[in-house]
Each structure stands twice: as structure tokens, then as C-alpha cells.
Design brief:
Blueprint lengths: L1 H23 L3 H18 L6 H22 L15 H19 L5 H9 L6 H8 L6 H16 L11
Helix pairs in contact: 1-2, 1-3, 2-3, 5-7
């Protein structure tokens, strides 16, 4: 049932998303994904819509309105928050402390993760081929290995990173 519904709605969704996306400042593919997600959520909770084509058109327009509201509310930063162009002593000290904390956490990782992440963080800007050769692994396994190591690093750093304070 779901497969037939998806196959039936795919061309209509592609057309609707293409027609509506650019006016809302989004990509058609992003709009399609958002509507597919809405459909999956609906199928899980309420089952398939009685009028799938009508539901899809309404969902596209609703998602476009949501996107427009988001674009009106969100404002870009005047400066990039991670920009390290400021060279005042406080900023330099904080940047240095962050780099030290990151490198310390990398050294505590299991297996070959420390060597892999050190190679990725290297100022030499090594290619994947060079890193794979240095570690003695295939270039194709470097991406998945990198993902696993970054996951370990996130879990390791999670307790050390303070939760953002509530504003307002």
C-alpha cells in the first residue's frame, strides 16, 4: 500500500515542489524531503490520506509557508561565530584552550582513532590517499572509520561540553 502511494505521488510531488520551492527560497529536493517526512509521520499515526493528491498539494503549500516564516525569522550572523580573525589576547587564549582540549580528547580515543584524527587535523592538509597510506588501511574504509572515530569523539566530549544557558 505505502509503496503504491509513494510511486503514485512521486511525479506530482516533484512537480509541486519545483513549482513552489524557489518562491520560498528553498531547494525543490529539500521541499520534497520535508513532505515525504510529513507523509510518513501521517501514515504512522493516521494512516493514508483519503485524498492523497489533495493532501500532497496542501502539505507542499504548508511546508512552503513554514519555510517562508523560518526565513523571515532567521537572520545570518554579522560575523561568523567560529571566525578566528579577532586577535585579542582573550580570544587567542580561548582558541588555544579549545585546541588543546580537542587534541587531548583525540589522544584518549580507542584504537587507531587518535592517529586518524591527528592526520585529519594536521596542518599538512593530507589527502585521503596519504592518510590511508600512513595508517595502512584502504582509502575506501577511511570515510567509515572517520565517522566511527568522530562518533567516539562526540560521546567522549559530550559530558565535558557545558549545556548552553537559557536566554531570555
Amino acid at each position: 500500500m505505502t509503496h503504491n502511494l509513494v510511486a503514485t505521488l512521486r511525479p506530482l510531488l516533484a512537480a509541486e515542489a519545483s513549482a513552489e520551492a524557489y518562491a520560498s527560497g528553498t531547494e525543490p529536493g529539500d521541499l520534497e524531503q520535508a513532505v515525504w517526512l510529513r507523509l510518513l509521520e501521517r501514515l504512522d499515526s493516521d494512516g493514508p490520506p483519503r485524498d492523497p493528491q489533495g493532501w500532497l498539494r496542501r502539505a507542499v503549500r504548508s511546508e512552503v509557508r513554514r519555510t517562508r516564516r523560518t526565513h523571515r525569522i532567521e537572520r545570518p550572523y554579522e560575523i561568523e561565530p567560529a571566525d578566528e580573525a579577532a586577535r585579542d589576547p582573550e580570544h587567542l587564549a580561548l582558541t588555544s584552550a579549545r585546541h588543546r582540549a580537542l587534541r587531548d580528547a583525540v589522544r584518549r580515543l580507542p584504537g587507531r582513532c587518535p592517529r586518524l584524527l591527528e592526520a585529519l587535523l594536521s596542518p599538512k592538509d593530507l589527502t585521503y590517499r596519504e592518510i590511508a597510506g600512513e595508517l595502512g588501511i584502504s582509502q575506501g574504509s577511511l570515510g567509515p572509520e572517520r565517522s566511527r572515530c568522530l562518533g567516539c569523539l562526540r560521546r567522549l566530549l559530550a559530558p565535558e561540553v557545558a549545556a548552553p544557558e537559557a536566554r531570555g
